[in-house]
Specification:
The chain is built from 22 helices and no strands. By secondary structure, it is mostly helical. Helix 2 packs across helix 3, helix 8 runs parallel beside helix 21 and helix 13 packs across helix 14.
């Protein structure tokens, strides 16, 4: 059964890759192939991780699972992505994005000669923000709205700008991270102890190395693609709104930070998430527009841009995220992950090689499924037993696996952060995944060499 699961999974992955290469609709391909895999999984014996599938209900349970996926995404991250899409469209419509670029060009003029250096400085700042806003897709979209216009103004290419933004979400760090909580639980360690004594000593040097890798890879590929960094000049931007509009693209980020657990003075009766921060800012922007134009009807009608932006993002991004999730569930239901784990455990590896194999497996699985958390949660419970069987410290297996899951997510063309960020940034998701893959695979190799030596 293990061999059959792996063979079937590999065939479906190959078919999906072939159809996508031939420019078939990604949403349709992933949804249909995912549904077929779920159909096949019912008589084969379902992976217990797919709780919604019940063989006694036959095909009905498959459509029930698909329905749950739609509802979950549309009420959660999918709705957030749609709100961000509408917010970006509205910011562009009222000229707030241009105001932000105009205001930031003068103080950042020193970086006009060093645009790639400016771009990689986003990575450590974004990583700190990621500890406060532990949603890869949410933070990625916030940074595309707030930081990307500034990077473009400095002459950074769209692909390089969005690549360093998604790089900010590579490492799941800190007490707010679900992966960090799960890892500390498995290691039977206090979460702060795990964060300070285990994660930080590894991720600080890895972040520096990642910055260097992104600097050289982005500069190389931009040059290869013919991009010449030409920063905007202040006189090139036609500012149609007051300069204080420049705070609007940054305001959601400020709101989230002020009301996060890190900075909040007291606990709030309601939670402020990315969607809430965007909606608050949207209504503030609407008031700004009314004060500026003195035309109530035109100000209210301008919200149609927001609704249209939401709809466009649903068609291009949210539908793809849902289809990718169903495809990933199809792979899991066929036993793809369990078969990889079984093979990894039974191929007679030495202790020094087991870290390389399982870290590589979790990276590859995260790329294929588009989810770092789901991959890590599937593999991590087995890591403790595997480490004990080989007489090695569990930390030496769980920590690199956790880091690899985030690297794989940022290298996946179907992950939420890559799909959503690339669409808002107006680049291809596959191009972004490829651009991220080169530095992140290099970083993965460097990390594995470190663990094999020490």
């Amino acid at each position: 059964m293990i061999l059959l699961s792996l063979v079937l999974s590999v065939h479906f992955i190959f078919i999906a890759a072939l159809l996508l290469f031939r420019k078939y609709s990604p949403q349709s391909v992933l949804l249909i192939l995912g549904a077929i895999m779920l159909v096949i999984a019912v008589p084969l014996g379902i992976d217990p991780s797919i709780n919604s599938l019940r063989p006694q209900y036959g095909l009905l349970s498959i459509f029930n699972l698909m329905n749950e996926s739609f509802l979950l995404r549309l009420s959660g991250s999918g709705f957030m992505i749609m709100v961000v899409g509408g917010f970006v469209a509205y910011m562009n419509h009222i000229g707030a994005s241009d105001a932000l670029v105009y205001v930031s060009l003068q103080p950042l003029s020193i970086f006009k000669k060093f645009p790639y250096f400016a771009s990689i400085m986003v990575i450590p700042i974004g990583q700190l923000l990621f500890m406060c806003i532990p949603s890869a897709t949410g933070l990625g979209l916030l940074l595309v709205v707030s930081i990307m216009p500034v990077l473009l103004g400095l002459g950074v290419s769209r692909l390089s700008a969005v690549s360093v933004i998604t790089a900010c979400t590579v490492f799941d760090l800190g007490p707010a991270s679900a992966n960090t909580n799960r890892a500390s639980e498995l290691l039977e360690k206090d979460i702060l102890n795990y964060f300070i004594h285990d994660q930080l000593p590894l991720t600080i040097p890895l972040t520096i190395i990642m910055m260097v890798l992104y600097y050289f890879f982005n500069r190389y590929f931009d040059k290869k693609e013919g991009h010449v960094p030409v920063p905007y000049q202040e006189n090139e931007i036609e500012l149609k709104v007051p300069v204080f509009y420049s705070i609007l693209p940054l305001l959601p980020l400020v709101i989230l930070l002020l009301f996060s657990s890190v900075f909040a003075v007291k606990e709030l009766p309601v939670s402020i998430d990315t969607t809430t921060a965007m909606l608050i800012t949207l209504f503030i922007a609407l008031v700004f527009e009314f004060v500026r134009t003195r035309k109530l009807k035109d100000s209210i009608s301008s919200l149609n841009v927001f609704w249209t932006g939401m709809g466009k993002i649903f068609v291009s991004v949210v539908s793809l995220v849902i289809a990718a999730e169903i495809f990933a569930k199809g792979l899991i239901s066929l036993g793809f992950i369990s078969s990889l784990v079984y093979i990894g455990q039974h191929i007679g590896l030495q202790a020094s090689s087991i870290v390389l194999v399982f870290t590589g497996l979790i990276f590859a699985t995260a790329v294929l499924t588009g989810s770092g958390s789901a991959t890590f949660f599937s593999f991590a419970p087995l890591a403790v037993n595997i480490a004990n069987n080989y007489g090695m410290e569990s930390l030496k297996l769980i920590l690199p696996m956790q880091m690899a899951s985030g690297m794989g997510r940022a290298s996946s063309p179907i992950s939420g952060v890559v799909v959503a960020s690339s669409d808002i940034a107006k680049v291809q998701a596959l191009s972004l995944a490829k651009r991220n893959a080169f530095p992140l695979v290099s970083l993965l190799i460097i990390m594995l060499v470190f663990f094999s030596l020490f």
